[in-house]
What we know:
Shape: elongated
Radius of gyration: 25 Å
Distance between the termini: 36 Å
Order of helices and strands: HHH
Oligomer: single chain
Amino acid sequence: xxxxxxxxxxxxEHPGRGRRRRLALAALxxxxxxxxxxxxxxxxxxxxxSGASDDSIAWVxxxxxxxxxxxCLFLALQIAGKVxxxxxxxxxAAAAHPHPTGGRRARR
Length: 108
C-alpha cells in the first residue's frame, strides 16, 4: 500500500537548523584551532626564552602563532554570536506565533 496525502512524506527539517548546526561546528573548529595555536605559542615562547632554538625563526613563528590565535578567537566569538542570535530569533518567533489548538471549526 502506498501512502497518500500531504502527510505521507518524511517530516521536513526546520530550515534554520542546518545552518545553525554548521555555524556551531565552525565555531567549535575555530575554537579548537585557537587552543592549538595558543599551545604552540606557549611552547615556542618557552624555547625562545631558554635559547634552545634560532632566535630569528622562533620569533617569527611566535608572531605568526599569536596573530593566528587572535584571529581564531575573534572568528569563534563572531560565529558563536551568530548561532546565539539565530536561536534567540527562532525562540522569539515561536513565542510570537503560538500553535493553534483547534482545526477549521475552532477558528470560526
